[in-house]
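Human: I wish I could look at a protein chain and see how it folds. This is the protein in question:
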Amino acid sequence: MSKEEIDELFEKFDHFNVLVIGDVMIDTYFWGKVERISPEAPVPIISRSKIEHRLGGAANVALNIQALGATPYLCSVIGDDDKSIVLRGLLKKRGLSNAGIVTDNDRITTIKTRVISDNQHLLRIDEEVTDNISHEMQNKFIDRLKSIVSDKNIDAIIFEDYDKGVITPEIIKNVVEIAVANGIPTLVDPKKRNFMDYHGVTLFKPNFKELVEGLKLDIEKNDFEGLHAASNELRKKLNINIVMATLSELGIYISDNGSYHNIPAEIRDIADVSGAGDTVISTASLCLAADLSPKKIAYISNLAGGIVCEKVGVVPIDKKIIKK
């Protein structure tokens, strides 16, 4: 794509509204330095210099949507605890609406704590509840989603599924019905639990591991014919228009209407792959709303995902770098 085409595309992004549904979390970072090994056990001792809280999970997708110029509407269920106060504070700080955030007294707010020394990721500690939200909470959440769709001009809907229990088959079914009725394209970044429940979505974006495990396949990552056969099977089973699979060092594969494309990964100085999938699905949603071809969707999304891998930790994309 030419620079003029890229500039025109980003001007379109500025007018889009995207509904982001899924598991939100806090990404906490303990930054420090390891200078010795513990005398109590053969483990490193880190001298902590800084603690940092960032928005993670579906919230990072919302940040990417925002960074690309569009307006995100983040919808999730969190706990009624101290960490929920931190999360709401982070949303306010980043200028994200909390209108779609529902509180559940029976859950805790998910937090992932990463310990990092000299840009090396040493350890991660997860605090979470992964049971599905209750039937009562599902109804409350669906009502909130319907309200936002009716009040806002939504151009795309993203399911950002981390298997933490916010997205359930019932919610998927209801949201897809709402999207179809309103002519809104839907995209999903799936995980294992609900993999085969996303009937009727527009674009399905697993990574390679999720694709082969979800379909119980035994193929190599560079077997594009095998990937294409698997994608066609998935499209038929779930009535999906487009399958886009991220292949890490091999780039992105995308298929629709019997054809496929592989967009090779660009050579980059990789620092951290955390959050790259969030950037890919965010970029793809705006490209889909802009009616780009599947090949162009994969090209722009691949470029954006590669750029964020140059940064340590989960960070949103910088659109100025893409536009270069």
